[in-house]
Design a protein that fits this description.
It contains 14 helices and no strands. It is mainly α and about 210 residues long. Helix 2 packs across helix 3 and helix 7 crosses helix 11. It is elongated. This is TetR/AcrR family transcriptional regulator. It comes from Paenibacillus dokdonensis. Keywords: DNA-binding, Transcription, Transcription regulation.
Length: about 210
C-alpha cells in the first residue's frame, strides 16, 4: 500500500515551492499553461500535495495572482508619492499597473474569472484589498473629488477600474478565444486611453479647482 503520510508531514516550504512554481509558470507561459500537472512538476512535488495545501486549482491560482500583483512595486509606490498631485498619482498608478498586467498572457482574464472567489470570501477580499491598497486608492479619489461618502467613492473606483481594465480584458479573451483569429481592434496607446478617461471623468473637478 502506498504511504500517503508525506501529505500530512510536509512543511510550509513545500507550500511556498508550489506557490512560487505557479507564479513562475504564469510569468513565463501564461495562466492557461499553469495546469496542476505542470505546477507539480515545476515544484518537484506530487499532485496530492498541491491539492492538500490549496484545496483546488482555483484557490491556488487566486493566491498566485495575488502574489504576482503584489510585485508591481512601482505601480503601488506612486500612490505614496505625495510630491505628485493626487490626480497624477492615480493616473500613473493605472498606467503602470496595466503596463505590467499586459506583460502576462491571460492574467487580466484570469483576474476577472477569480473575482467570484474574492467577492464571496471576506478573507480573500481583505487580502485583495490589502494587496491592491484599496484604502489608499479611495483616499486619493477623495483628495481629487473632495467626496467623503465611502459608498460613492467605492462606486467611482469600480467605474474607473471597469473603464481602464475593459480593453485589456477583452484583448485577453479574444487572444485566447480559440482557433479562429481574433478580429483586429485598433485602440489608442494605453497612456492615451487613460488620459482620455481622466479628462472626461474628472473634468468637473479640474474645472472647479
Amino acid at each position: 500500500m502506498k504511504d500517503d503520510s508525506s501529505v500530512h508531514t510536509t512543511g510550509t516550504d513545500t507550500k511556498m515551492d508550489i506557490l512560487n512554481a505557479t507564479v513562475e509558470l504564469i510569468q513565463e507561459e501564461g495562466v492557461a499553461c499553469a495546469t496542476l500537472r505542470r505546477i507539480s512538476e515545476k515544484a518537484e512535488t506530487n499532485l496530492a500535495l498541491v491539492n492538500y495545501h490549496f484545496g483546488s486549482k482555483d484557490k491556488l491560482i487566486s493566491k498566485a495572482i495575488g502574489k504576482l500583483v503584489g510585485t508591481f512595486d512601482d505601480a503601488f509606490a506612486v500612490l505614496e508619492d505625495d510630491s505628485m498631485e493626487p490626480i497624477e498619482r492615480l493616473k500613473q498608478f493605472f498606467y503602470r499597473y496595466l503596463s505590467h498586467l499586459q506583460q502576462y498572457p491571460g492574467l487580466a482574464k484570469e483576474m476577472m474569472d477569480q473575482s467570484r472567489l474574492i467577492l464571496c470570501s471576506q478573507h480573500e477580499y481583505a487580502r485583495y484589498s490589502k494587496v491592491m491598497k484599496t484604502e489608499k486608492l479611495l483616499s486619493t479619489l477623495s483628495e481629487i473629488t473632495q467626496e467623503s461618502d465611502d459608498t460613492v467613492l467605492g462606486g467611482m473606483m469600480v467605474q474607473l477600474y471597469g473603464a481602464v481594465f475593459y480593453p485589456v480584458i477583452m484583448n485577453s479573451y479574444m487572444n485566447l478565444a480559440g482557433e479562429e483569429p481574433a478580429p483586429e481592434i485598433h485602440l489608442p496607446t494605453l497612456e492615451h486611453q487613460i488620459e482620455m478617461l481622466f479628462n472626461l471623468y474628472f473634468h468637473k473637478y479640474s474645472q472647479s479647482s
